[in-house]
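If you are new to this repository, start here. Below is one unmodified record pulled from the training split, so you can see the exact layout before writing a loader.
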Amino acid sequence: MTKIFFVLSACLLVACGGKEQDNDRDHDHDHDHEETPDAQVATVSFDEEKALAAGLETQTVRPGTFTQAIKVSGRILAAQGDEQTLVATLPGVVALGKIAFVEGAPVKKGQTLLSLLTGKLPEGDIAVRTRAAYEKAQSEYLRAKELIKDRIISEKEFNQATADYETAQTAFEAIGGVQNGSNGVSICAPMNGYLKNLRVKEGDYVETGHPLATVSRNNRLQLRADVPEKYYNSLPAIRTAYFKTPYSDELQRLDDLNGRLVSFARSTDNDAFYIPVTFEFDNPGAILPGGYVEVYLLSLPRENTLAIPLSSLIEEQGVYSVFLREDKDCYRKQTVRPGADNGAEVEILSGLKAGEVVVTQGAYHLKLASATNALPTHHH
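And here is the target side for that same chain:
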């Protein structure tokens, strides 16, 4: 009987010891993710064939350089000198040319975009009068130039003829110097580009100086970020920026677009309490000037930081998680606590450790699979 008692006692001690070791292992695991005690760890079966079809991508978590960003709103503008506004050079009635006078229509330098008809104005045809005055003044000047050589006219008369000619020439060149066959003046494209900001239509009457349209190259654009004044002290550390447009999920990086910081203001913008920060960059062809964008202003980098792509994060009712690859067919869902992000990467404050393999693309497919394909919850 005594022998049986000692055997049972030894078995109980072994069982308790094993439970204590399991508890120690659980404690060690919780220590790795100590700030996420409520993390639900569910393992999902997802074989290699499914992973390939779903486009799953992974990366090993390593401490590295992370650049924190200030997230603000901004706007895309045309760069200075990259667009020109056409204006009416004299009063007239708009007559459209042969090209399609619509937003986005391509134009070539010297191409006639529209004409200003002047023949039926109450004050008479200004274009005809201007041309006639120019030709008369030119003739008088050339005559005076010959007469002055033989001292037939005085220096004063020659100077007056010269002044009249220059005045008439300026007026003639101001209306474009081109008169078409319809008693009008042609308005031509000053450069290759695209039409935008159309201000007139067929039959409109315009006065001198009235804006007609804008021709834009769209080769070079500006990014203007509106920064709240509370970030003023951080502006000297800003080096570059990322931005997202409303019509694309692609993150545009100024470093990839030959971008550069132009300037940041030393005062707020009027009464808006925002400080404008301006960048300039090449237009890859898919960015529309005039639109509003989300801007991430990148400051000085921080070393030895755990960061993962934003595409790794899954958000469910305010709780964030990622999927970790356990082996080639097995993935584990892990709750994490994210910190700052820069539009491309997000800092992880807790829930991950170096050496773990996180899913960076296709995590949504694992989320769907976990609803029906999840194995019982367990700890490793």
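Two things worth knowing about this chain: Residues 309 and 345 are 4 Å apart (CA to CA). The helical segments are 2-32, 48-54, 126-147, 155-174, 363-373.
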